[in-house]
Amino acid sequence: xxxxxxxxxxxxxxxxxxxxxxxxxxxLIAHKLKARTVWLGCPEKCEEKYPKNAxxxxxxxxxxxxxxxxxxxxxxxxxxxxxxxxxSQFVPALKIGYxxxxxxxxxxxxxxxxxxxxxDEFRRYKRDKEMNSQLYSKLTNQRIPSDMVFLRxxxxxxxCFIRTDQLDGETDWKxxxxxxxxxxxxxxxxxxxxxxxxxxxxxxxxxxSFEGTFTREDSDPTVxxxxxxxNTLWASTVVAxxxxxxxxxxxxxxxxxxxxxxxxxxxxxxxxxxxxxxTKALFSALVxxxxxxVTLQGFVGPWYRNLFRFLLLFSYIIPISLRVNLDMGKxxxxxMIMKDDNIPGTVVRTSTIPEELxxxxxxxxxxxxTLTQNEMIFKRLHLGTVSYGTxxxxxxxxxxxxxxxxxxxxxxxSTPSRKPQLSAPKVRKSVSSRxxxxxxxxxxxHNVTPVYESRAGVSGETEYAEVDQDFSDENRTYQASxxxxxxxxxxxxxxxxxxxNRDLTSMQLKTPGxxxxxxxxxQIFPFTSESKRMGIIVRDESSGExxxxxxxxxxxxxxxxQYNDWLExxxxxxxxxxxxTLVVAKKSLTEEQYQDFESRYNQAKxxxxxxxxxxxxxxxxxxxxxxxxxxxxxxxxxxxxVRPTLExxxxxxxxxxxxxxDKLETATCxxxxxxxxxxxxxxxxxxPVTTRGEAxxxxxxxxxxxxxxxxxxxxxxxxxxxYYEHEFVELACQCPAVVCCRCSPTQKAHxxxxxxxxxxxxxxxxxxxxxxxxxxxxxxxxxxxEGKEGKQASLAADFSITQFKHIGRLLMVHGRNxxxxxxxxxxxxxxxxxxxxxxxxxxxxxxxxxxxxxxxGFLMVGYATIYTMFPVFSLVLDQDVKPEMxxxxxxxxxxxxxxxxxxxxxxxxxxxxxxxxxxxxxYGALLLFESEFVHVVAISFTALILTExxxxxxxxxxxxxLMVVAEFLSLGCYVASLAFLNEYFDVAFITTxxxxxxxxAITVVSCLPLxxxxxxxxxxxxxxxxxxxx
Length: 1030
What we know:
Largest sheet: 9 strands, mixed
GO molecular function: ATP binding; ATP hydrolysis activity; ATPase-coupled intramembrane lipid transporter activity; magnesium ion binding
Number of strands: 31
Pfam families: Hydrolase (PF00702), PhoLip_ATPase_C (PF16212), PhoLip_ATPase_N (PF16209)
Helix content: 40-55%
Cofactor: Mg(2+)
Family: Belongs to the cation transport ATPase (P-type) (TC 3.A.3) family. Type IV subfamily.
Protein name: Phospholipid-transporting ATPase
């Protein structure tokens, strides 16, 4: 394991990967982050100690596990209350009944919780151990395990591509450049023999910047090289081409990926918080009832002891079985979710919050890999007068073959013969040459590099040997910083013009006839978010012609190309289809024009002040009156069924926000194509703002828009939140959809917290990359998608799914059922405690306010367990509508967000039912008993059990065969146990007809009115779901 950042990351070094670490914040507070000097191959020169490069996702260690788990349990009022009540039974004066009646349920609850936490913790430990035991030597197509400076590569160009999807969510490949001093060394081993060091700034959050220097002291003169972001390889990125060798500068908690990851929090569901509030209300009622009893006694004798005894007698008002039933219910919902064949591969990682899936108001989703597959497909080529789609691409292919076959005898010229063919009509010829020009421009104007995989068995420095590489078409893959560019180059290959080779100075195309055309790259102007275009100047080797090609967004290109009447309209048409458009243009340059441009361009590049502005001005002098060649349309394929899923979620009243690290244009395009923004809706693109004044003006402009989707960039968002947080969030929440582009991982998490803070509504975050982990952990409910971007998001999430479309069923069916079932279960368990406490209160008040228990010992334990447990728990199988109906009418989900299934209103209804039934059962038994007190116990307890079983039947909306089994099983258990309850019941009495009719009469009086009320309510005020089922 590497403990020092100064160990050189070479062939023989082993390194442990680093991702998330919950204790990051405490570490950052305890250790001040410092800049460092790292010597190559000389760890002994490093005096500082740096953090271990190990994963730690565990919440506890051996010493903190039991205290930690107990704290998490007893911070809930319910559990703390029962701990106090159970401990009070050790005081002889307060003892009521047997110790096991209090300690057995509490012990069971704690045992279940500790075992569940221990299993979860062990799984986390195993996952961490698996990751920490990975050994690395030389990186090739592997995740980079720590932050490094890039020293050397097997690629001849001295550069390589890396994938950063787990860091920033973008699947574009980024070009990284090795330190030139170390790249030029003759042999790999020379890295150990030189006297050199890297100076690196202190660790920072920003993943897009780095400042450092590389110094070699044993050369004359001393070599100083400045290091920037392009010389770095951050942890969690993947080497996509060649092999790389680097020096480690940051490890563990100091790596960029870990610093951008927030602490996982223990999530508590809204339903649990609501039930916690209700238990506090019940406790208030318990205290009030006990005080009333002592007051009616007249505060005689040691009244405070009597008060405490009453508190214990009525303690069943707050049922400890509530926690057990709900936890077992959650486990059952998790099992049902994972066993659902309609959403295969779904995993429940946090079993404590399935009800949250039924209460969501905001869904925050990533774009790349979540809504889209990130697979680009070329769909449309428009030349102004003629348009080609996927079904007419063969026409383009035949035009290209004809263009190049005309001069197949003359391979020296790359331009097709311009001599008119007598047989071909004139219009056809002009279209053919325009197609040829357009395809050639697309094949040349890009940043794509063809890569050929090395043969197996080739290693180390021998990879430089070209003879060991296979240059066949099947072995070729393309690398680029944008998947759009790869799609364009793959398309030109499919129509006959293939990019076969490229280095820093030239590129080669292969014609349909197999001839190689060479073009020298004179200048490249890369794409930037400001310019929204990229350009290239090439010289044709055979003819010497110099051509300036440019492609870019229609906004940027419309002012550069010559006047035309079709570009704007066609761009709009393609955008409505959800295609990403690029305008392609060219300009021929004479040798003199190019030489003049080159001298001005080089001069601008050397200037110290306003370099970027001067360079842009020189390039713009070329960008005038360019010849418009074509308009291309590329589709980023959406995940399966994204459109119907988003529509379903919208109909369910869920507001959807898309948070992406991608470009503004791309994000807007996907928002339209996925129907996140409907066709009729306007889109307000928030202008870039940098100051308070600009933000104020732009917010005012946005305030005047109505029913309008918002698109905002991360930088502008940061400025708005700094000065006008409340106003911005208030306006954004009124939008039907919001798209935030260029978002960093920490910004995504910040937006989630803002929504939670300002709206108080439940949020859900869904993503598939490492950059989504912070957002997933910050949300009330985090969903990870297992995809091409790895499992990091899925492992950190509360629920893991395999496809975005599964979220529909997960929320509409399982979320809805989990919430409604838990609400019914929770209230019924409370009713079960309230009814027996009401009976105790009536009993005590009739018998001169004596603090004597009505039912003792096994009767109390049996009542909460074997006599009623199975039917009550069978409520977790109940459903109001079939799953198909819930998916067909997502509007049913909207009702749940109002929380009407469990509220103070529904709670009070259950309290009134409990008081009515408890009063009837107790007074009925007291009225009907003739001689002995033991008859009161037998009649009231039997009627109580029957009432509970009938009330379960009344609550159920859809019968399941297991519910019927549970009802009869419980009744059977009770009847069978009567033979053994001699100390509580008179066995001779309970076999008489008198006993049976008295029990039946009381039960009917307690239950029949409720059945009548339910019938009348369903007839005159039916709930929304019943209209569908009928």
